[in-house]
C-alpha cells in the first residue's frame, strides 16, 4: 500500500474561523422578554456626543488649528499619520480622562469627533508615543509654552495671585528621573515631581515642569518661577506669589525681593519661631479674624535670613472650652492622658506663622492665605482627574511634553465650562458628564450632516438650553469674524468666560505679544 506524500506546509486554520461576522439578528432572552440584537460596527457613534460644542469653541477661538500648525513634529514617510491625527488623538484622550497611552485604543471606534476635528483617523498608542519621541525637547517645550501663554495672556490685566506648589507622581518602573524622594502617598517609592505655577482666581495653569523625584523642594522650583516672571511684562505680574512652608526660605524671598515681586508664604515652626510664638502668646494685641481665628503682626529675623521680615502669627483655639484631652508619652514610652485646665495654656491653641512683603492689614493677609486651600484642590484635580497621574514613558522628555499638553487642554476646558457657569469652577468629574458625555450618532443626507444626541443626565433640559445659548454666542462672533483678528475673537470669548471678575463694562482687550524666549 502506497501512502500519500506528506504535505510540506500545514494547511493552516479552518476556513470557518476566518468567516466575517454575521450581520444577522441575534435573539437574546432577558427578564423583559426576548429581544433582537444586531451588530452595526460601521455606525458613526460616540459616547462624547456634546463634544461638538467644545470643538466649535476651539474653532471660534482659533485654538486648535494654530496649535497643530506650530507643532515641530516632522514626518518624512508618506505613510506617516498627519499632525492633526496625532494631536487630535491626544486631545480626545486627555478630554476623556485617560491616564495611559494604551487607552487611546478605546477612541479608534469614535467615528464622530475625529471627523469634526478634521482628522482622518485616531492613531494607535504606539504612533502617539513615537510622535512625541520625534520632537526635539527644546522646540517642543517652547511650542507648548507659547500656546499656554497665548491662552491666558489677555487675562493678565485682571489683578491675580500666583499659587506655586509641587505635586508628586508615583512611578512603578525604571523610568528616567524616577528617584526616591519625598513621596507622602507611597513612601520609599520612586517618583517624579511636577512643579506647578497657577493663576489662583481663574484656576488656570501658567506653567508646569517635570523634574526627578529628589528635586521636590522650592529650590528646584525657583528657577522656573523666575524664568516665568521674566517672560511676562512687569505690568502683568501677579499681586503676589503664594506658597506653603517649603517656600518660606531666605533664598526664595531674597530673589523675589530683588526683582520686586511680593510674596506670602508660610514658615516652618523652628526653635526660634516657637520662641516668637511663645512671646506673642503671653502678650496682647491680637486682631480677631472670625469666631475661631485671630492674628497678630510682628517681625522676625532667623539665623539663616539676611534681613528682618514682617510676619503674621495666626492662632485658633482648639475645641472644648474648659478641658482639653491631650495625649502624651510617659518616660517609659507608654501613652498617657493629660488634662489641661488652664485656659491660657499655649497648648490650647493651634499656631501658624506667615511671612510676607505685603503691607495689607492682618485680616486681609490671613484671608489671602486661607484662600490658598481652594487652589490646592485644583492641583489634586489635574493630577487625579486629568493626565498628570499617568502617560508614563521611559524617558523624561515625553513626560514633560504631555504634562504641558494636559495643562493646555485643561485650560481650554476650564474656560469653556466657565462660559456656561461663570460663577464658580466645576471640576471635570462634574463638568464632563454635564457638558460632554452623551450618545451621539452622526448621519448624512445629501450635503447635510446631523448629530442626534441622547443624554441620560437628569439636567438634560438645562444642558440643552446652555448649549443653545453657547451656539448663539459663537454664531454672533462668526457673523463679524471677517472684521476680527484671531486674538480679538479669543478676547471676546474670554470676556464672557471671566465676566465674574470684571468690572461693569470692562472687556478683555488684546495684549502685546509676550516674549517667550
DSSP, total strands: 16
How many angstroms does the end-to-end distance come to? 88 Å
Principal-axis shape? globular
Order of neighbouring strands in the sheet with most strands: 6-5-4-7-8-14-11-10-9
What would you call the structural class? Answer: alpha+beta
**Averaged pLDDT, please?**
85
What is the tally of helical segments? 15
Q: Tell me the β content.
A: 15-25%
> How much helix, percentage-wise, in residues?
25-40%
Rg from alpha-carbon coordinates: 29 Å
Profile the largest sheet: 9 strands, mixed
Outline the low-pLDDT stretches. Answer: 12-19, 321-331, 334-343, 513-517
Care to describe what's here?
The chain is α+β, with helices and mostly antiparallel strands and 517 residues long. The protein contains 15 helices and 16 strands. The termini are far apart. A hairpin with an 8-residue loop joins strand 10 and strand 11. 35% of the residues lie in helices and 19% in strands. The C terminus is likely disordered. A 9-stranded mixed β-sheet has the order 6-5-4-7-8-14-11-10-9, with helices on both faces. Strands 3-15-16 form a 3-stranded antiparallel β-sheet, with no helix packed on it.
List keywords for this structure.
19% strand; 16 strands; single chain; alpha+beta; disordered C terminus; 35% helix
How is the secondary structure organized here?
Blueprint: E1 26-30, E2 33-37, E3 45-46, H1 51-60, H2 64-69, H3 83-95, H4 113-116, H5 125-134, H6 137-152, E4 162-170, E5 191-199, E6 204-212, H7 218-231, E7 241-243, H8 250-259, E8 263-266, H9 271-281, E9 287-288, E10 293-300, E11 309-317, E12 324-329, E13 335-340, E14 349-356, H10 362-370, H11 372-385, H12 396-420, H13 428-435, E15 439-445, E16 448-454, H14 460-479, H15 486-497
Amino acid at each position: 500500500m502506497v501512502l500519500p506524500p506528506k504535505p510540506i506546509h500545514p494547511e493552516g486554520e479552518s476556513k470557518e474561523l476566518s468567516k466575517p461576522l454575521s450581520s444577522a439578528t441575534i435573539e437574546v432572552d432577558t427578564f423583559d422578554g426576548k429581544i433582537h440584537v444586531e451588530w452595526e460596527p460601521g455606525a458613526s457613534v460616540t459616547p462624547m456626543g456634546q463634544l461638538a460644542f467644545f470643538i466649535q469653541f476651539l474653532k471660534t477661538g482659533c485654538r486648535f488649528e494654530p496649535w497643530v500648525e506650530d507643532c515641530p513634529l516632522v514626518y518624512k514617510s508618506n505613510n506617516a499619520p498627519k499632525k492633526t491625527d496625532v494631536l487630535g488623538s491626544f486631545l480626545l484622550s486627555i478630554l476623556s480622562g485617560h491616564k495611559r497611552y494604551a487607552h487611546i485604543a478605546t477612541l479608534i471606534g469614535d467615528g464622530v469627533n475625529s471627523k469634526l476635528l478634521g482628522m482622518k483617523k485616531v492613531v494607535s498608542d504606539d504612533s502617539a508615543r513615537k510622535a512625541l519621541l520625534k520632537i526635539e525637547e527644546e522646540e517642543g517645550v517652547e511650542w507648548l509654552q507659547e500656546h499656554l501663554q497665548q491662552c491666558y495672556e489677555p487675562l493678565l490685566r485682571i489683578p491675580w495671585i500666583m499659587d506655586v506648589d509641587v505635586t508628586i507622581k508615583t512611578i512603578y518602573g525604571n523610568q528616567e528621573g524616577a528617584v526616591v524622594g519625598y513621596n507622602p502617598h507611597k513612601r520609599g517609592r520612586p517618583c517624579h515631581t511636577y512643579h506647578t505655577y497657577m493663576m489662583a482666581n481663574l484656576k488656570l495653569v501658567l506653567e508646569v515642569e517635570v523634574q526627578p523625584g529628589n528635586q521636590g523642594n522650592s529650590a528646584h522650583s525657583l528657577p522656573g518661577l523666575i524664568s516665568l516672571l521674566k517672560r511676562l511684562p512687569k505690568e502683568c505680574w501677579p499681586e503676589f506669589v503664594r506658597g506653603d512652608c517649603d517656600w518660606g526660605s531666605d533664598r526664595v524671598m531674597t530673589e523675589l525681593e530683588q526683582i520686586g515681586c511680593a510674596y506670602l508664604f508660610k514658615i516652618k515652626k523652628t526653635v526660634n519661631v516657637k520662641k516668637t510664638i511663645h512671646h506673642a502668646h503671653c502678650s496682647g494685641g491680637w486682631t480677631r479674624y472670625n469666631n475661631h481665628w485671630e492674628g497678630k503682626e510682628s517681625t522676625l529675623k532667623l539665623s539663616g535670613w539676611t534681613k528682618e521680615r514682617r510676619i503674621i502669627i495666626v492662632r485658633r483655639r482648639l475645641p472644648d472650652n474648659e478641658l482639653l484631652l491631650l495625649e502624651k508619652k510617659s518616660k517609659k514610652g507608654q501613652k498617657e492622658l493629660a488634662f489641661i485646665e488652664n485656659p491660657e495654656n499655649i497648648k490650647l491653641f493651634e499656631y501658624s506663622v506667615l511671612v510676607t512683603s505685603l503691607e495689607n492689614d492682618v485680616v486681609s493677609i490671613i484671608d489671602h492665605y486661607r484662600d490658598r486651600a481652594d487652589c490646592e484642590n485644583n492641583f489634586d484635580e489635574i493630577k487625579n482627574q486629568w493626565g498628570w497621574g499617568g502617560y508614563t514613558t521611559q524617558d523624561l522628555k515625553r513626560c514633560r511634553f504631555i504634562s504641558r499638553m494636559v495643562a493646555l487642554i485643561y485650560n481650554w476646558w476650564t474656560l469653556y465650562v466657565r462660559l456656561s457657569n461663570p460663577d464658580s469652577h466645576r471640576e471635570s468629574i462634574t463638568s464632563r458628564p454635564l457638558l460632554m458625555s452623551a450618545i451621539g450618532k452622526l448621519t448624512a443626507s445629501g450635503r447635510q450632516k446631523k448629530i442626534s444626541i441622547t443624554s441620560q443626565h437628569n439636567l438634560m433640559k438645562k444642558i440643552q438650553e446652555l448649549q443653545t445659548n453657547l451656539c448663539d454666542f459663537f454664531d454672533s462672533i462668526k457673523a463679524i469674524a471677517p472684521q476680527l483678528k484671531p486674538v480679538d475673537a479669543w478676547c471676546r470669548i474670554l470676556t464672557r468666560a471671566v465676566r465674574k471678575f470684571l468690572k461693569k463694562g470692562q472687556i478683555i482687550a488684546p495684549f502685546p505679544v509676550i516674549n517667550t524666549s
